Amino acid sequence: MTTSSVPFWMPSAAGLLAGAAWNFASVWTLSRLLNAWLSPQRSRRHVVGWLAAKLAVLYPLAALFLQTYPGTAVGFGIGFTVALLVVIGWYALATQRSLAHGR
C-alpha cells in the first residue's frame, strides 16, 4: 500500500487557482483585443498581437498545465467558472452603475 505525501485536496486547489488565473488573463486579453479592434483608432498590428497572445500563449499554457497535472482538471474547470462568473457580475454591476448615472 502506497501513501502520497500530497494532501488529497492539493491538486484540486492548484487547479482552481490556475483556472481562475488563466480565465482572468484570458478575459483581460480578450478585452484588450476587442478594444484594439473596435476603437476608432484601429490598429491591425495591435489586434493581431492580442489575438496571438491569446491563441499562442494562453491556450498552450492551459494545455501544458492540464497535461502536466491531469488531476487538476476539475479544479481548473471550477476556477475557470468562478472567475467567469466574477467577471460577468463585475461587468453587470459596472453597466448598471453607468446607466444609473446616465453615462
Give, in order, the helices and strands. HHH
Main sheet overview:
none
Q: What's the mean pLDDT score?
A: 83
Percentage of residues in strands: under 5%
| Helical fraction | over 70%
**What's the shape?**
flat
In total, the number of strands is 0
Spatial extent as radius of gyration: 18 Å
Distance between the termini: 65 Å
- The structure class reads mainly alpha
Q: Could you list the spans in which at least 5 consecutive residues all have pLDDT below 50?
A: none
Give a verbal description of the structure.
By secondary structure, the chain is mainly α. The chain has a domain at 21-67 and 74-93. 80% of the residues lie in helices and 0% in strands. It has 3 helices and no strands. The protein has helices at residues 10-38, 44-68, 73-100. Helix 1 packs antiparallel against helix 2 (44-68) and helix 1 packs across helix 3 (73-100). The chain is flat, with a radius of gyration of 18 Å.
Quick structural gist:
This protein has 103 residues and is mainly alpha-helical. The protein has helices at residues 10-38, 44-68, 73-100.
Secondary-structure blueprint of this entry?
Elements: H1 10-38, H2 44-68, H3 73-100
Helix pairs in contact: 1-2, 1-3
Features of the shown structure:
single chain; 103 residues
